[in-house]
Structures are given as structure tokens and as C-alpha cells.
Amino acid sequence: MKTREEAAEIVRLLLEEYPEADCTLDYGKDYELLFSVRLAAQCTDERVNRITPALFARYPTLESFAEADLKDVEALVRPCGFYHSKARDIVACARTLLARHGGKVPQTMEELTALPGVGRKTANLILGDVFHVPGSTVVDTHCIRLTNRIGLVDGEKDPVKIESALRALLPPEHSNAFCHALVLHGRAVCPARKPACDRCCLRQNCDSAEPAATP
After folding, report:
1. Whole-angstrom Cα distance, residue 37 to residue 132?
2. pLDDT at 213
3. Which domain holds residue 64?
4. Which end of the chain has the smaller Cβ count within 10 Å, N or C?
5. Would you say the C-alpha torsion 68, 24, 51, 43 has a positive or negative sign?
6. 212 occurs within a structural domain
């Protein structure tokens, strides 16, 4: 396990490598990000971004989502997979936002995770990206893989436990950007198979890095 000082250095290096690290889902309104994250479950952000322009054009307001015919929404989000449950959650979430929150996306973990289809990962993303709450820590598959490889956590797979461990280690003001940078790093350098340790900015700080080749 890394110390807080070691973790701070890892954060510094990663954000230096990815200074523009941000959410890769496209959205214009707060609730659109909420719905996009739901669509992104077991689907790529790239595919979601191809689908949401037509979805948000068809339903330009929260009210229109709440009044939508479920089968019409299913047809639009079908390419994202699991379209029955995703469409159901989006329509139910729109209705809940209108009925309980005056059409606004709530700003607390408790209220967010009470919404249909919203778990801690989604809630942390909303808190960090929309409301800029320090300490917001998004634990996705990239985060689980990389934090274990680097040594920020030790063999832990439970997202809630990883979130708790990272909250104790990471500088709160950088935790949101750090998680976005992990996604970029996981895609570009440290995928599940064959991590490119030879061009990794964290090579000297990673518990799993392959040793440098001898010239």
C-alpha cells in the first residue's frame, strides 16, 4: 500500500500526463450526464456518444423524458445493450427528478443513489463533474485494475472498499480528475492485457511495473 505522500506523487504524475482529463461522455444538461452514465454501463462511452444526440433531440426536456413511451426510448438506446432496463431507469429517473427534486439533479450522495438506476459510481461522477465536490471518487473497471496494479489498494475488488481507501489516500481536490486520468491511462497505456510499462509515466511508482530492459 502506498502512503499519502506516494499517492500524491502518483496523482501529480498522472495529471501532468493527462492535463485535460475530463469525462468523455458528451452532455449539455446535468440530467443528460446522469442518463448518459446509465447508458454507459457495460457499453463504451464512444457508442453512447453516438446515440445520445438523437435521444436528447427526441426528448429535449426532462418533462418529455418523463412522458416518453418506454418502447420508443428502448428503440433509441437499443445499441447500448440492456436497453429494456436502461430505458426503464431513464424514464423513471426523469419522473423522480420532477416529482421529488423540482426537476433538478440533487447534490448529495444519499439523494442521488435513491434515484432509479443510480449507484455510487454514477453519483460520484455527478458530484465531481457537475457540482465539483472534493473527494468525489469514481471507481470503474479502469480504476479497480490500475489502483491494484499501482499499489494504491492491495488485491481489493470491491468498488465501495476501493472508494473508501482512495478517499483516505488521494488529495480531495484532485480525486475527480485523477479518476478521469486513470480511464485515459487505462485505455492508452495500461489495458487489461499487455500494459505498456516501457512508456508509462508511473513506471517508477508502480508495484507491478516490468523492469526496464537492460541496454
Report:
1. 17
2. 52
3. 30-129
4. C
5. negative
6. no
Active site residue 45: no
Q: What confidence score (pLDDT) does residue 214 get?
A: 45
pTM, rounded to two decimals:
0.91
- 121 included as an active-site residue: yes
Structural domain includes residue 51 = yes
Collapse the DSSP code of 110 into the 3-class scheme (helix H, G, I; strand E, B; otherwise coil) and give the result: helix
CB–CB of 194/186 below 8 Å?
Answer: no
Single-letter amino acid, residue 106: P
Domain presence at residue 8: yes
Cα separation of 115 and 169, whole Å? Answer: 29
Q: Which of 69, 121, 154, 194 is catalytic?
A: 121
Candidates 29, 140, 154, 157; catalytic one: 140
Residue 212: what pLDDT?
63
Which pLDDT score, from 0 to 100, does residue 1 have? 84
Show the low-confidence residues of the chain (pLDDT under 70). 212-215
> Is 111 in the same domain as 80?
yes
> Do the domain assignments include residue 9?
yes
Nearest to residue 70, comparing CAs of 85, 88, 83, 52? 88
First to last CA, the chain: 31
